Amino acid sequence: MGKIMVEKLLRDCGEVRCIYLLIRAKKGIDPAQRKEEYVKNIVFDQVREQCGARLDKIRLIRGDILSEGLGLSEDDHRELVENVEMVFHCAANVRFDQHIRQAVDINLNGTIRVLTLAEKMRKLVSFVHVSTSYCQCNEAVLEEKHYPAPQNPEGISKMVGLLDDDILDLITPRLLNNLPNTYAYTKALTEDMVYQYRGKLPIAIARPSIVTAAMREPLPGWGEGTNGPTGLLIGAGRGVIRSMHCNGEYLADFMPVDLTMNAIIAIGTERMRDPRKEEVMYYNLTSSADNPISWGEVLEMGRSVLNDNPFCFALWYPDGSIKSNYLYHLLCVIFFHYLPAYLIDFLLVLLRRKPFLVKVQKRISAGLTILQYYTTKEWIFRCENAKSLYRRLSHDDRKRFYFDVTEINYQTYLYDFILGARQYILKEAPETLPQARKLLRKLYIMDKIVQIALYVFGLWLFWTYLELITGSIQFVFDTAIVGLRGSTTVRQGL
């Protein structure tokens, strides 16, 4: 998200004088070298070619949201206080299984440190906090409004700092109160913490749903990392994910990263135009209400695209499916995830190679367990504020800062998404597609051979046990007849 925002501001907001980026220090690497590495990323190619001088507007500030005072030097602190007019706070830990101490320190305490600095900024006209549309998982409908935190954010911050891990582990379930993970919990706390600064800062809160690869800019299908749907796509495409607990009729909700960041920039500008600090503006950035698509439809479209554009490496033929029945899903996980993993690892041990697949499957299962909470529940989001903001944009700004979700063509988008995952994450060039398709055909044949063998084996077992069962029943029946005849003879004798 950060790179897309910086690239967009440089390319389409030429009047911006400087972009300050808070960046953690790396041992032995100075900020100038880190900036050089940063702008070498492929997303900045267009800026480099068309307006390369604008890259000089990037100013790296060495700091860390985990440190008191953000770890800023006196000179950097002074420069930010005197010059910054707009803050976009996107930094967060998006790991759903993070321990509550780390989640609180990054998501809650990190935000408190940013708010403390923002309060000192003399020219600040807009503070945009990026939250998530899944910050209130216990709500049937997420409105564009303030929701009180489950507990006092400052109290939780102090408590987590005082207690040791053993005690925190004991009380975490009680704190979450049916929330699915520490990510959702700390995001709810953080939103309330930001809300408490109303009247002091001009605040807007953006709540995007699942952020996925770019739809158009700077490159169709571009993305980084393997969190969420991207990791699921890669795991399924490589044949290691073959079952997922999901209600295929429920609506999927995801936002391409370019639409998300266009909306957040527009929100920052809208906040700047409204001087009333006592009000907090809320915007839900979601797609399911205005451009609905079910998880089942996403799967079928993705399967079709993936079969035509497979990955270069796969352990087995990608033929997974979603299961609405949890017990059926568990059986499939046992037979199609873990049993093959143990078998392959056993063969690797025999070949004196290092086993790895069981460990991979355990990580996948943990990730799926977290993700499945969101795919087996119906989500309803209201996004009138976001739609109203888009309608107020000028014609030119709608073209430059597009975030109308009705423009998402899912067939085209999933095609770009999958090819983007191949090229930008797995580093598989388009020229490798013919080779990947050959591999897919081989895996398909192997998969069918194994299926036929399993069916034959199953039939053999069935007939074998059927004969045994039939023989046993016949034996019992014959014994019973003999017994009855014996009883008759005895009665006749008497």
UniProtKB/TrEMBL annotation:
UniProt KW Lipid biosynthesis keyword: yes
Transmembrane parts of this sequence: 326-351
Enzyme class: oxidoreductase
Protein's cellular compartments: Membrane
Record key words, sorted: Lipid biosynthesis, Lipid metabolism, Membrane, NADP, Oxidoreductase, Transmembrane, Transmembrane helix
One Pfam assignment: Sterile
Gene3D superfamilies: NAD(P)-binding Rossmann-like Domain
Substrates-to-products reaction catalysed: a long-chain fatty acyl-CoA + 2 NADPH + 2 H(+) = a long-chain primary fatty alcohol + 2 NADP(+) + CoA
Fatty acyl-CoA reductase C-terminal domain segment(s): 336-428
BP GO terms, sorted: long-chain fatty-acyl-CoA metabolic process
Similarity comment text for this entry: Belongs to the fatty acyl-CoA reductase family.
Protein name: Fatty acyl-CoA reductase
Organism of this sequence: Anopheles stephensi (Indo-Pakistan malaria mosquito)
